[in-house]
């Protein structure tokens, strides 16, 4: 029994036709018929009931099909994981990001880095990292570096951090919101608004930072929704579901979706940058971090 035979068998079972199975496998019909006949001979049973118009599986064929689909699935996974192992060798960077804003910044950085990198085989792998997995992914070598707010890894041993930008926090509202035409709102005006925010329970440090925002504002808002995905929060804000606090960088990345308003006498900032495992000194990572150190992230 060979993989080729199983592929021909599966195609014939799906299409219920030797000719259509042959077309899907880009071979002659005689090749499919012969291989299935050899398979039946080896197994000592009939796999298909044949007539002039189509073929159908016998009971033995139905049982073999179940195993065939599992075997071919495992073969595909084996090929995928083997190739991925090669990509994840020390010659390839694994860069993570938390949140949609970090994703946008990373895209800009990597486009610039690719232009100056002397490694012709440079092929970084990008991953969205859940908040509760950020520190773990660095400490366990799942990511070489992660772009994130500094507070997430504040005071975490063995993790180094390089700041990139420290934008102020402002208010984001939908284009149809009454605040959309304003450049500034007062804290008093915000007290009657419904807020949407990210679920920061996965990081005690970030959760503490979010609470400090409310303390700075002087009131705890009516939070109607907490989401683990920043994109979901932005979408709800964009469609008028509420308002949310974001960094000034969002003015640069999402000017067409949302309106951004300053909050009078509110000047909190959120530092963002790149974190990595201190003992990870792979040459490609060091080159990348040296490049990042020289970059300026635009907020205008």
pLDDT below 50 for ≥5 consecutive residues: which ranges? none
Give the N-to-C terminal Cα separation. 64 Å
Largest sheet: 5 strands, mixed
What is the count of β-strands?
13
Please give the structural blueprint.
Layout: H1 3-15, H2 18-25, H3 29-43, E1 48-50, E2 55-57, H4 59-87, E3 94-97, H5 100-116, E4 125-128, H6 134-139, E5 145-149, E6 159-165, E7 169-174, E8 184-185, H7 187-190, E9 194-198, H8 204-217, E10 222-227, H9 230-238, E11 244-247, H10 249-253, E12 258-263, E13 272-277, H11 283-293
Parallel strand pairs: 3-4, 3-5, 8-12, 9-10
Antiparallel strand pairs: 1-2, 5-13, 6-13, 7-11, 7-12
Helix pairs in contact: 1-2, 1-3, 1-4, 2-3
Structure description:
With 300 residues, the protein is an alpha/beta fold. It has 11 helices and 13 strands. The strands form 4 sheets. A 5-stranded mixed sheet has the order 4-3-5-13-6. A 4-stranded mixed sheet has the order 8-12-7-11. The protein has a two-stranded antiparallel ribbon with strand order 1-2. Helix 1 (3-15) packs across helix 2 (18-25) and helix 1 packs across helix 3. The longest helix is centred in the first third of the chain and has 29 residues, at 59-87. The mean pLDDT is 88.
């Amino acid at each position: 029994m060979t993989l080729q035979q199983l592929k021909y068998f599966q195609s014939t079972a799906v299409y219920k036709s030797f000719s259509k199975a042959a077309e899907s496998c880009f071979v002659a019909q005689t090749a499919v018929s012969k291989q299935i006949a050899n398979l039946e001979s080896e197994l000592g049973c009939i796999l298909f009931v044949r007539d002039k118009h189509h073929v159908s599986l016998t009971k033995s064929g139905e049982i073999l099909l179940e195993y065939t689909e599992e075997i071919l699935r495992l073969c595909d996974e084996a090929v995928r994981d083997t190739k991925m192992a090669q990509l994840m060798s020390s010659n390839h960077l694994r860069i993570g990001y938390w949140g949609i804003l970090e994703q946008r910044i990373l895209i800009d950085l990597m486009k610039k880095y690719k232009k100056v990198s002397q490694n012709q085989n440079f092929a970084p792998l990008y991953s969205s990292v859940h908040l509760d997995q950020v520190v773990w992914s660095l400490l366990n070598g799942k990511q070489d570096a992660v772009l994130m707010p500094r507070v997430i890894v504040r005071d975490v041993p063995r993790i180094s951090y390089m700041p990139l930008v420290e934008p102020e926090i402002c208010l984001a509202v939908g284009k149809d919101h009454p605040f959309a035409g304003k450049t500034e709102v007062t804290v008093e005006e915000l007290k009657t608004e419904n807020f949407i925010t990210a679920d920061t329970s996965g990081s005690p440090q970030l959760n503490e930072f979010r609470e400090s925002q409310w303390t700075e504002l002087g009131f705890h808002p009516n939070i109607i929704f907490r989401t683990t995905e920043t994109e979901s929060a932005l979408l709800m804000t964009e469609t008028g579901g509420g308002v949310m606090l974001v960094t000034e960088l969002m003015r640069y990345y999402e000017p067409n979706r949302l309106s951004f308003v300053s909050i009078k006498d509110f000047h909190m900032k959120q530092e963002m940058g790149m974190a990595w495992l201190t003992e990870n000194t792979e040459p490609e990572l060091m080159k990348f971090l040296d490049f990042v150190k020289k970059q300026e992230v635009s907020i205008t």
